[in-house]
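Input record (one chain):
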Amino acid sequence: MIIRILTSSLLLLWLTSFASAESLNGTCTVHFYGKSTLHDFDGQVACHPFDLVVEENESGTQVIRQAVVEIRVREMDTANDRRDNKMRSMFESSKYPLIRSRFADLDLTALIERLQAGGSDPARLDFNLQIRDRSLPMQAEIRNIKAAPEQITFDLEFPLSLASYRLEPPSVLGLIRVDDLVRVEASVQLRRD
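The corresponding structure, as predicted from the sequence alone:
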């Protein structure tokens, strides 16, 4: 409880020190975890650096305006060349080279209030995830928020169904198949411009 109050206080101090409109530079690393009939696997990819604008709206709350975060399918790496090639083929990376996450405005003041209120439910973040030509609403849990004067870091986690994007999971000889559900985690760092 004390850690939650301390984190909330640091976040509040961090946010109140923003000018009326300020930019943040963002980076993230995405980790993904899957299962197959043979063994589990994991991989990672860095997202493209992105910029966020923090503004104060009419009611005095701090809001991060709509953000778009992208990763290149060809940069996704599971440390297995054959598996990586099958994965890139599944995503049709030559035709659809990017996976995009589009976020709605994020009310940081409301997020801080939720953290201060406590409770066992984690904070959640809604976004649309575009894979190939399909964009679907998703929801990620926000965890491990840490604020310092010059940066804020946090983790996101959400499940991803390959079938919901009409993706055919890779297989080997029809015997070894990748499960439909993939767990995705992202470690995000936002720094003041």
